[in-house]
Amino acid sequence: MYKVKSIQAFVRKYGAKRSAVVVTLAVMGVSILVSFIICFGILGFRGREQLLVSFMLSVIVPAMISPLISYGFSRLIEMLDQSEQRNEELILELQKTFANLKTLKGLLPICSSCKKIRNDSGYWSQIEDYIGSHSEAEFSHGICPDCFKKLYPQYAGIQKQ
User: Fold this and answer.
1) Where would I find the H helices in the chain?
2) What would the mean pLDDT of 69-75 be, rounded to a whole number?
C-alpha cells in the first residue's frame, strides 16, 4: 500500500506523462547497466569483434523492453487516476445525499390536548408544520372512524352502500 501511495504522490507532483518518461528512462538506465555488467563481467565480451553483440545486448534489448514497462506504468497511472476520480465522485454524491437528508431525532415536546409541538425557539406549531419543515414528509388530511363518530354523530349511523 505504501508503494501505491508513493507512486500516487509522485504522479501528482510531476504529472502522469512526466512520470511515465522518468520511469522509462530509469528502467532503460538500469537495464543498460545490468546488460553492461552481464556482457563485460559475466560473459567476458572484451574484443572489437564482439562489440556489436555487446552493444545489442546492452543497449538495444533494454531499449526494446523499457517501452513495455513504461506502457504498463502509464496504464497503472491511468487506473489509479480513474479510481481516484470515481472515489471523488462517490464522495460528492454522498455529501449531496447527506445534505438533502432530513431526519427527526430525539424527544419532541407535544401538547397532550391540541397536539401542537414546541420548536427549539419555544413556540408552539401544528404538528404538520413542524414535521413538514424538519423532514421531507407531506400530509393529507382525513378523519378516522372514531373521530367521525364523535364529530358527526348524526351521520355515524349511515353506512356506505
Assistant:
1) 2-14, 16-36, 51-55, 61-100, 127-134, 145-151
2) 75
- Give the residue from 125, 106, 107 showing the smallest Cα distance to 116: 125
Element (H, E) at 124: strand 124-125
Per-residue cell: 160 = 356506505
Check residue 58 and report its DSSP letter.
I
Q: Give the percent of the chain with pLDDT over 90.
A: 4
C-alpha cell at 156: 355515524
Helix (H) or strand (E) holding 26: helix 16-36
Which of left, alpha, beta for 55 (phi over 0: left; psi -120 to 50: alpha)? alpha
Task: Read off the C-alpha cell for 139.
Answer: 400530509
Handedness of CA 83, 84, 87, 88 (dihedral sign): negative
Distance CA 29, CA 59 (A): 9
Cα–Cα dist 161/154, whole Å: 17
Q: What is this structure's pTM?
A: 0.40
Domain boundaries, the chain: 2-100, 104-161
Q: Mind listing the pLDDT tens digit for each residue in 6-56? A: 666 766 777 766 777 777 777 777 777 777 776 666 656 566 656 666 666
